[in-house]
Specification:
It is a single chain. With 201 residues, the protein is mostly helical.
Length: 201
């Protein structure tokens, strides 16, 4: 967990929150709760994290589309972490609709990738693969390395399930490069583990 377990993190957030409240900066207070919700999420306290995100959503609707997108993306993450596929699906489609409405390309393609996750969890790897491929194309145009890696590792997993091991290895190698470029060391390790497991088959 690293820095998320440091007691000073929660204390500093609460101090910032008090300062924001003292100046009647409601968006600032919301931002503090957003950071606190992230801390809860990384500690595995998904119910507390989700409750904080949900608390501020009504206020953010119509206030700041950018912040609302951030909140909704995190709520989707919580739903997936809690393995609540029905809620994850509903929230992902709402996120997609909002991203399209405000013309946010990055959020649009992240929503597409998440919807792909839902189809894959339901056993529809064909639709999932198409959505991951679509998201990958968008992230490639935008030059977002980590998001490209997220799509590639998923596509490689589908290839492995189909017995297309050579293609899977190629996808994971490319995903590893993307994660390395974006300094995502844990994801680099995930790619290495997949290749290692493949070599043992």
């Amino acid at each position: 967990m690293g820095r998320y377990d440091d007691p000073s993190v929660r204390r500093n957030i609460e101090m910032a929150k008090i300062a924001m409240a003292g100046t009647s900066n409601k968006l600032g207070v919301a931002a503090c709760d957003f950071v606190l919700a992230d801390v809860y999420f990384h500690r595995g306290n998904y119910s507390e994290s989700g409750a904080l995100y949900a608390r501020w959503l009504p206020f953010l609707e119509g206030q700041s589309a950018e912040m609302e997108l951030l909140w909704r993306r995190r709520m989707v993450d919580v739903a997936f972490a809690e393995n609540d596929r029905r809620r994850a699906a509903r929230l992902s489609f709402v996120l997609l609709a909002l991203a399209l409405r405000v013309h946010d390309l990055a959020a649009t393609h992240k929503a597409l990738r998440r919807i792909g996750d839902i189809f894959r969890a339901d056993g529809d790897s064909v639709t999932a693969g198409a959505l991951f491929g679509l998201a990958l194309s968008g992230f490639t145009l935008m030059g977002i390395h980590q998001a490209r890696g997220d799509c590639l590792i998923r596509l490689g997993d589908i290839d492995r399930e189909r017995g297309e091991f050579k293609t899977a290895r190629t996808r994971w190698a490319e995903a590893r490069l993307m994660f390395d470029r974006s300094s995502q060391l844990r994801d680099v390790q995930r790619c290495d583990e997949r290749v290692s497991n493949l070599e043992q088959l």
